[in-house]
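Can't paste images in this forum, so I'm doing it all in text. The chain is below; anyone willing to post the predicted structure tokens underneath?
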Amino acid sequence: MMSNDDILEALEITAKLMELHNENPFKTKAYTNAAYKLSKLRYDFEGKTQEEIESIEGIGKGISAKIVELITTGSTKDLSDLVEKTPAGVIQMLGVKGLGPKKVRQLSLELQVESIGELLYACNENRLIGLKGFGEKTQLAVKQNIEFKILNTNKFHYAALEKPLMKLVDVIRENQPGIQVCLIGQMARKDEVIDKLDMLMDAEIKIDISALEKTIPLPMHYEVCKPDEFFYKSVEFSAKPEHLEKINFSSLSHKKFESEKEVYAALNLQYIEPELREGLGEVERARKNKIPKLIELSDLKGILHNHSTYSDGVHTLKQMADRCKEMGYGYFGICDHSKTAVYAQGLPIERVLDQFKEIEKLNKTYSGFTILKGIESDILNDGSLDYPEEILKQFDFIVASVHSNLKMNEEKATDRLLKAIENPYTSILGHPTGRLLLARNGYPIDHKKIIDACSANKVSIELNAHPYRLDIDWRWIPYCMEKGVLIAINPDAHHMDGFNDLYYGVCAARKGMLDKENCLNALSLNELLQKFKK
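Text version of the structure:
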């Protein structure tokens, strides 16, 4: 089964190859637009018919047929034909950030460069500087982006691997009764980026799982232990060495345990969840029984930071709000893009006022559920927010985020965020570093200064739950809690199914030892509104 990411990648590379070979621009644009839509969706194509796919806004009849062809065969005739006439190294070059098809064609024709390795060598030899449209800064950026791509080869987001791996575990359990089996290592700790897969079992696998293994983009390493050793080994193999070094773990090797909790009890320690086994202070807390009850998805009372068709979302305001209500939440915060985000159909003032009217009308139809008037306001280059005060003060809350001019040094980025935090209308600082895991490093910031400022100005910090972001990094959550800064676990949903990303945000929050008392959207509606009033 091809995932949304697989289909998105196929559509993107088809569009790029079409542009590379100067093919029909209208057909190229159709692929490009469809890929952009899917990049916002994280859509689950499993079991969907062509008619259902065609009903997705921005996916026409022609592209829906191509998606069905991808799902059925793993490719399309268009893509196969394009790949056949393109050197493999050129296709890899199209995956380098900042190199569009026109520049790749230029490099291929003028420098005879046909692979990433050749391109990196050309950068080191300063051969790009003399090309039209390039220069020293562009050459340096290309070199850095190639190095970033090489560094992140064969690494995947946790979200991309969890579903096929859990299916594999379930199939083994169902078809080989009595076997004990679990994921260990990075997957057990729910690390945000995975480059190694490990599974523990207490017997050899006797069923054919080769078809399922092909759905997983990394090779699986299997550890087999004796049945009596299973829980001892599951703790050992799920923890980082830094964790094991602090708990005298080897002293337990001769004992039998019936659960992981028994393992920690034998060490006179509070139970330490797999997510926490990092060696970052969790053992010291466990000795004092100071690990809080970690937040659960069920603790969340509402969903903040969501987009609709008012800006670049896929579903209407009502559709998004209704789905939120159906999921059992008590409030829904709409945060469409502000006016400067033209690329995302950001809202001019008159559209903001139109949305306010619709929210007021919809809220009269709900019982026990409220839509909150929010906006994702761009933090402009000077740190100011993206509307005049007479508009800002009409929102229930404001998520302030950076979306432009991302190439900042630490001083500039920190100062820009500080000014936004100090704005009296800022409620939540959105995705603080702007990172995209495996695609883009975040801009550097002084996290302590930012968190201290949020504390002083009663601003919450977002943990953007999209598995490509997970920003703020969970390693800073303990300091946020120490300073009394609440964490808002926000899906940044552009589609109804985007609400499901809250799960990945909770996974990351748990790694940072977040409890519900320190989570903004675990508050009731009345408590939340009091926080927003500052």
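The mean pLDDT is 95. The two ends are 48 Å apart (CA to CA).
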